[in-house]
Amino acid sequence: MAAAPQKAPNDAGAEAGGKKKKKLMLMIGLAVALVAVSIGGTVAALKILAPAPAATEEAAAEETEKESTLAPAIYFDMAPNFTINFNVNGRQRYLQAAMTLLFRDPALEELLKLHMPAIRNGLVMLLSSKNFEELQTPEGKETLKEEALEIINKQLKKEQQALAEKSEDEEKPKITQVEEVLFTNFVMQ
Questions:
Q1: How far apart are CA 140 and CA 155, in angstroms?
Q2: What is the pLDDT along the chain (189 residues), one digit of tens a residue?
Q3: Which of 63, 74, 144 is nearest to 105 (CA)?
Q4: In the chain, what are the domain boundaries?
Q5: Integer Cα distance of 41 and 30 in angstroms
Q6: What does the alpha-carbon distance between residue 60 and residue 134 come to, in Å, rounded to a whole number?
């Protein structure tokens, strides 16, 4: 009987080392493949989710146009300050408020000066109709700003429409408005 050839101890070590190298190469190859798939997936997702370049360029052009057409702010101080008295639980209380108007059309300043008595009357009526305690809260002050803006713009719109009706031009002038009412002083006692 012939004996099966036996492997030398060196051959067994070489074979085990070869298997380890194959496993190591397989693991490295798998890691490289996973990284490649991850990068490819990220690039594909970014291309799909990114806005169209034309839309981005158009939006940038519109934003630049808006910035270039936006006139500088004009601040109009409504002097003298408003002083309103309240009767709170039998005690006299006072409100002193200084208002400044923000707008962008220079022509609006002359209209404001011309119709200031009517605008101030509307604001005095608004202020005197308010509750003293309500005006002490931030929400009350914000509501007051919004209502004051509404009164001012309503009066301006009415006067601008009257001027437009008297105008013989076919092209109606654009109605401009105050953007914001700012309280530059607000004291309650």
A1: 23
A2: 555 555 555 565 666 677 888 888 888 888 888 888 888 777 777 777 766 555 555 665 565 555 557 789 999 999 899 999 998 888 999 999 999 999 999 988 998 999 999 999 999 999 999 989 999 999 999 999 999 999 999 999 888 888 778 776 666 667 789 999 999 999 999
A3: 74
A4: 13-67, 71-188
A5: 16
A6: 44
Q: Where in the chain does DSSP place strands (E)? A: 74-88, 91-103, 180-188
Give the residue among 186, 153, 178 at the shortest CA–CA distance from 101: 178
pTM: 0.60
**Pairing verdict, β 74-88 and 91-103:** antiparallel
